[in-house]
Amino acid sequence: MREKIVQICRLILILLFAYTTYHKLADFALFRQTLMKSTLIEEYQINFLLFFVPIIELVTIFLLLSEKYILGLYMSLLLMLTFTIYLIVLNNFSFYKGCSCGGVFNEMTYFQHIAVNISLIIISVASILLHTEKLNE
Predict the structure, then answer these.
(1) Per-residue pLDDT at 135
(2) CA quadruple 133, 84, 113, 100: dihedral positive or negative?
(3) Domain extents for the chain?
(4) Which residues of 80-95 are buried (b: 16+ CB within 10 A; e: fewer)?
(5) Are 35 and 49 in contact (CB under 8 A)?
(6) Arithmetic mean of pLDDT over the chain
(7) What's the CA angle centered on 55, arms 21 and 110, to 5 degrees?
(8) Alpha-carbon distance 135 to 137, whole Å?
(9) Under 8 Å between Cβ of 120 and 14
(10) Residue 90 vs residues 12, 45, 84, 120: alpha-carbon distances, Å
(11) Which of 10, 91, 96, 137 is most buried by its number of CB atoms within 10 A?
(12) pLDDT tens per residue across span 10-40
């Protein structure tokens, strides 16, 4: 049963990162524009982030699909924590309110987005714990 739950959580995370990566790459100009509006990101960092974020999301997808998916679960947790902290700081300490996730995430309110992110953090942590429990049996 634990393994099925972990598999479902992996699928949720894969779909999340595939969706957000697709939207960043499909509307690259909007992704760039959104990053440029952020007062937290320096201009010289934008070109790096334009490529780094989608690449790291793709790497996370491939890790989640691999036999060593535990690395993908840890990567998902790290990404979701990073994105959530960025979103909190951006919306509380910056004039620009918004995110560069793409798609439906751009339409969410701040609190909806935080709730979704926290849910995904919980999914990542639960998956890691369930996977670890399975190994310890």
Answers:
(1) 66
(2) negative
(3) 2-136
(4) beebbebbeebbeeee
(5) yes
(6) 90
(7) 45
(8) 6
(9) no
(10) 26, 16, 10, 19
(11) 10
(12) 999 999 999 999 999 999 998 898 888 888 8
pTM of the model: 0.90
In angstroms, rounded to a whole number, what is the distance separating the alpha carbons of residues 104 and 77? Answer: 21
Q: What is the pLDDT of residues 46-80, one digit of tens each?
A: 999 999 999 999 999 999 999 989 999 999 999 99
User: Which residue intervals of the chain are DSSP H helices?
Assistant: 2-26, 28-37, 43-65, 69-93, 110-136
Q: Is the dihedral of CA 92, 94, 97, 100 positive or negative?
A: negative
φ, ψ for residue 130, nearest 5 deg: -65, -40
Q: What is the rounded distance in angstroms from the CA atom of residue 122 to the CA atom of residue 11? A: 14
For every residue of 56-96, DSSP letters joined together read HHHHHHHHHHSTTHHHHHHHHHHHHHHHHHHHHHHHHH-S-
Residue 45 has which token pair? Answer: 């960092």
